Amino acid sequence: MKYRFFAAGLAVTALAFLSGCAGSVNATKSIDFADANKAIAEEAKADAAQMEATNAKLDSAKALQAEGEEEQAAALAEQSVLEYKLAVANAERDAAKKEDERVEKELRSDVERKLIYQSILDKEVKNGGAK
């Protein structure tokens, strides 16, 4: 699911980049794109502190746009887009680490169980051979 959002975000970024090549700064597009990335970061359950700081930047971009500072608003919105993407990447990395730790623990458990079963089997074979 996250990869679909990422792919959609990438497509929107490409579209924004291509339309940005026309020479004008469009803070509205940048802010809309930042809002979309915010939703993705929230869904990914990104770090609360990182989200709070990035949300403040996005709010500042919206305030700058309201004041007519299009270039500064667009720059701040684009910075927040990057920070939202970083937050998502960090959240996915943390989830992957947790999954890796769980799998490693499970594997160690399986190895220990195998050794116990092997020990029981060896005892049975040894006792069966003595009869």
Question: Can you describe this structure?
Answer:
The chain has 131 residues and is an all-alpha fold. The protein is 89% helix and 0% strand. It has four helices and no strands. The chain has helices at residues 2-20, 27-43, 48-66, 70-130. α2 (27-43) runs antiparallel to α3, α2 runs parallel beside α4 (70-130) and α3 (48-66) runs antiparallel to α4 (70-130). The longest helix is centred in the C-terminal third of the chain and has 61 residues, at 70-130. The chain starts with a helix and ends with a helix. The mean pLDDT is 85.
- Return the string of H and E elements: HHHH
The level of helicity is over 70%
CA radius of gyration: 26 Å
Low-pLDDT regions = none
Envelope shape: rod-shaped
Sheet having the most strands: none
Number of DSSP helices? 4
Question: Ends: how far apart?
Answer: 61 Å
Sheet-strand content, in percent, reads under 5%
Helix/strand-derived category reads mainly alpha
Number of strands: 0
User: Quick check: average pLDDT?
Assistant: 85
